[in-house]
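Page 47, continued from p. 46.
Same chain as before, 352 aa.
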Amino acid sequence: MGARVFVAMSGGIDSSVSAVLLKEKGYEVIGVTMCFNLDIPKRKRPVCCDRMAIEDARKVCYKLGIKHYVLNFSEILKEKIIKNFCREYLSARTPNPCVDCNRYIKFGALLEKVVNLGADFLATGHYARIEKKDGLYYLKKAKDINKDQSYFLYYLTQDKLKRIIFPLGEYLKSEVKELARDLNLPVANRAPSQDICFLPTDNYREFLSLYFKEKIKPGEIVDKEGRVLGRHKGLCFYTLGQREGLGLGGGPFYVINLDKKTNRLVVGRKEDTYRKRFFIKKPHFITEPIKNRIVLNVKIRYNQQDIPAEVIPEENYLEVEFFKPQSAVTPGQSAVFYKDDLVLGGGIIEIE
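Result:
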């Protein structure tokens, strides 16, 4: 029997095929599904950790003849992910809970737990690659650039990377789907899961309205000169660059500032959403931190191509300046640094 690998199984195609590939390579494979006690009704799409996901993962493990465990991480989800998600939106910022989930749960609490249970490695269905060279581990983009998820993984460390396997890093999504069908896996036709598992729907505004109604204060919508154009429903319902849902005539208008001090939503034209510079106060690097001014590719949201920028290390922060202004550089989102297909690190965007 080979090294023991716990596979984080969400009941989806990617994690199920990952388990198959590892078993074929001779690993001792054990499935593990995370549970968060999220019995939220009327979801439009499946999620990675509800009862249906647990049952689907169990079916796959049964077919593969491997053990399957369910581990509850509901408290850490609440403390590290949901509270920060709400706190950031209520502070007029836009968080990325998927980055936090990978940092604190999948490759935090779950990795620690399975190692304590005797695992040599933790594997997931992420589309990313890990390479070892000269004693160091490097995180790289996946072969399938359209599915690459390295953006969400920039907080990984050397100690964690040496314990992680990404079996799908060299596969195209189309190949993974075909494998699932060829293997007649019970989840071969399962729909893609909902991005944020703790939301009843994909609409975060409904979630905030349900639990934080008393903290949400309507206010004025103004232009750059301070002229009142209308009313907003609460700053947490808007994000930089947003055009839809403003309820204004004479546009198009775009959100260019969320002024927490005055509770004003500032709007302007499309060109007003662009900026060249932002900051990162607590950057994280997978290997050595940047010590000198350098040009790197920077991705400021998951579904965006990485863009060349000058990264300038200062005493307690990084300054990042694009060569061409970019739209909707958003506080609370992650900026990730790349050199070709290599992930160097990243951090949370600040604009002040």
